[in-house]
Design a protein that fits this description.
By secondary structure, the chain is mainly beta. The protein is 8% helix and 57% strand. The protein has one domain: Maltoporin, Chain A (Beta Barrel). The protein contains 6 helices and 33 strands. The chain has a 22-stranded antiparallel β-barrel. It has a 5-stranded mixed β-sheet with strand order 1-6-7-4-5, with no helix packed on it. A two-stranded antiparallel sheet has the order 2-3. Strand 11 and strand 12 form a beta hairpin. The longest helix is centred in the first third of the chain and has 23 residues. It is globular. The N terminus is likely disordered.
Length: 640
């Protein structure tokens, strides 16, 4: 309790300090507000798109309609061709981007990397899909932009102000199979100067779905036990335009969950439980003038995990960031930034408490020699005591080969160097941690073509194809060392593949049809052998499917909405020698909704069927997943 009070006091002191900085900043005065017209200022938690030149990003919208109370794991599984590794329904869910591991993707919330400081991963079953106003999936290495862990890709979650005088209230409630209930309340209120956005959510599921126990004779149907889940959270965002060219924002996110860990089919007596608590705070200030634009951010991340009421881990992270951007010439723009992070961990899994400071300095440059051609050069240098971390450069290019009223044909090209700092668990786990580990280092290259075709204002078509190649050295794996396991820099991995997305919008009589098809071919191969008996060299990495497909058709007719999705996850090897495999599977989902509108109100009634064909499938061996299940939802909106 004393520690929590101390943290709160420090947070309040920091907030007070930043308010004083905002008050003293140029442009912040009552006179300036009276004599100048307010202009919209947008603070991005990610680099401006102009510095992401040459890479592939996927932007998500219609989240409230398709995923009003779902997790980020559900969204990524439905709308992307990436592999989501799930340890059961509502259990640990991690991502594999371009054949890399869960720790090779960074997750940024309002500019703060929220990957676990101990594990180096994010559990996407603990993140609601509506945790931000903007959601972006960045494919490929981007350490120069986002720092450590950005080898395979990055997830960007960003909150933003709408600056509307009309308050908006949203209330959502659904009930589903296996005693599952999800609630959400959102309220956004403000004007052209000040805005507040509040989102509260709660999920409970008994999660006791039936399954066929294939380990018993005849594969009898049993009901899953010890799988209940409860999640509660609150997101509070405040935005304040402190002047014509300045803005102050505070983003807060509290999340708490309790869950029984789903046992495997052969371990029904397991009684593992886990409690998680997270507090995330980002305080930002932006000011711009003829001298350029400056962004300053202070952040705090608190993560607590208690396993089986015995093993606990508490992590505190303090972050300071600052960046200065300026347009040097009509063709040249640059950003110079620095960041500092203090990480402190208390856990009974280490020999003692651990604390360290980390810093980064980066430079981003965008050059536009011609209207149709853009170049970006980005570089980041990180520092962590005891490590020699390589510089992370990125060179990207986009060239518009054709652009007119009906066609846009663009060529992308990017090369990057990336790194990943060994996690605290890798270095300090007792017993087995290895403090002599080297950072993982990778080089990647990709090239892609984008074609957008507008047959008419009512019909559009988009095609995007990307080829990539990636090399990762000093890949860290845990190996048996007598009576315990220890991590080593052993592997060299090469990952290559192809990503294809086709999408379109068609206006038909009284309605529209939106459709999207995405396909990913991923070849991720280990290039090294541990010894003469190791048969893993030249083989596909475990749990990296060669083929992934996602398809979504969305039909809007008057006030009716119909969606139909198909997702395919290919075969996955479960051993390094590729001798054992988990079969691939198709999953089919369907949703129907009807909206009723009044002057300032609307009511959306939805009915959803998950796993429509009642497919028996396994994401991981011997971990049961739900069959056909149903969900009925109500969403009430009030603009008053």
């Amino acid at each position: 309790m004393n520690t929590q009070n101390t943290n709160v006091s420090v947070l309040l002191a920091l907030l007070s300090f930043l308010c004083q900085v905002a008050a003293a900043a140029p442009g912040f005065s009552q006179d300036s507000l009276q004599t100048q017209t307010l202009q919209e200022v947008v603070i991005y938690g990610m680099p401006s798109r102009e510095f992401i030149t040459g890479s592939r990003q996927q932007y998500f919208d219609s989240i409230d309609v398709l995923f009003p109370a779902s997790t980020l794991s559900d969204l990524l599984h439905t709308l992307t061709p990436v592999y989501i590794k799930e340890y059961g329904s509502y259990m640990l869910s991690t991502i594999s981007l371009r054949g890399t591991g869960a720790g090779h993707t960074s997750t940024l919330w309002n500019g703060l990397n929220i990957n676990s400081s101990t594990l180096g991963i994010t559990d996407f079953s603990q993140i609601p899909a509506f945790a931000g106003d903007r959601l972006v999936l960045h494919y490929g290495g981007a350490s120069a932009l986002y720092g450590s862990e950005s080898i395979g890709g990055s997830i960007i979650i960003q909150s933003e102000g709408l600056w509307t005088d009309t308050p908006l209230l949203t209330v959502y409630q659904d009930a589903g199979s296996f005693q599952t209930y999800r609630s959400r309340v959102s309220l956004r209120i403000g004007n052209s100067r000040v805005e507040s956005s509040t989102r509260a959510y709660h999920t409970y599921s008994k999660n006791n779905f039936p399954f066929n126990n294939i380990l018993k004779p005849g594969s009898p149907v049993e009901r899953q036990q010890h799988t209940s889940v409860r999640q509660t959270g609150l997101l509070q965002d405040v935005y304040w335009k402190t002047g014509a060219r300045s803005q102050f924002s505070v983003n807060t996110w509290y999340h708490h969950s309790n869950r029984q860990i789903q046992p495997t089919m052969g371990n029904t007596a397991s009684a593992d439980i886990q409690e998680d608590e997270n507090l995330r705070l980002a305080v930002s200030f932006q000011n711009s003038g003829d001298w350029g634009r400056i962004n300053a951010k202070a952040g705090y991340l608190y993560d607590f995990m208690l396993f089986n009421n015995v093993f606990n881990t508490t992590s505190n992270q303090w972050i300071l960031q600052s960046a200065w951007s300026r347009k040097l010439t009509p063709m040249l723009k640059s950003t110079l930034g620095v960041s500092w992070k203090n990480v402190a961990v208390e856990t009974n899994n280490y020999a003692g408490n651990v604390a360290e400071n980390r810093w980064d300095v980066y430079l981003w440059i965008k050059y536009t020699p011609f209207r149709i051609w853009e170049l970006a050069l980005n570089i980041r240098q990180a520092g962590v005591p005891g490590f020699r971390i390589p510089a992370a450069p990125t060179l990207g290019s986009t060239l518009d080969l054709m652009k007119n009223n009906s066609h846009h044909f663009q060529w992308r090209l990017m090369a990057s160097g990336n790194y990943r700092i060994p996690t605290l668990n890798d270095r300090y786990w007792n017993p087995g941690g290895n403090p002599d580990l080297k950072p993982e280092q990778s080089w990647s290259a990709e090239s892609g073509f984008l074609w957008q075709y507008a047959h008419s204002p009512e019909t559009t078509f988009t095609s995007d194809i990307t080829w990539y190649n990636m090399w990762v050295d000093n890949w860290i794996i845990w190996l048996p060392q007598g009576s315990y396991w220890s991590p080593q820099n052993i592997r060299e991995v090469r990952s290559s593949g192809l990503e294809l997305t086709l999408s379109g919008i068609h206006h038909v009589a009284n309605g529209t049809i939106d459709w999207n098809i995405s396909y990913a071919f991923t070849r991720s191969v280990n290039k090294t052998s541990l010894d003469e008996y190791d048969r893993s060299a030249g083989k596909q990495l475990p749990f990296v499917p060669l083929h992934n497909v996602s398809m979504l058709v969305y039909y809007n007719l008057f006030n009716w909405k119909f969606s139909f999705s198909e997702n395919y996850t290919g075969d996955r090897f479960i051993t390094t020698d590729n001798e054992d495999v988990v079969d691939g599977y198709w999953l089919t989902d369907m949703k129907i909704s009807r909206q009723v509108k009044w002057t300032k109100e609307s009511l959306l009634v939805s009915f959803e069927i998950k796993n429509l064909l009642n497919k028996t499938y396994y994401n991981l061996p011997l971990r049961a997943m739900p069959g056909r299940n149903f969900r009925l939802g109500l969403m009430y909106n009030l603009n008053y």
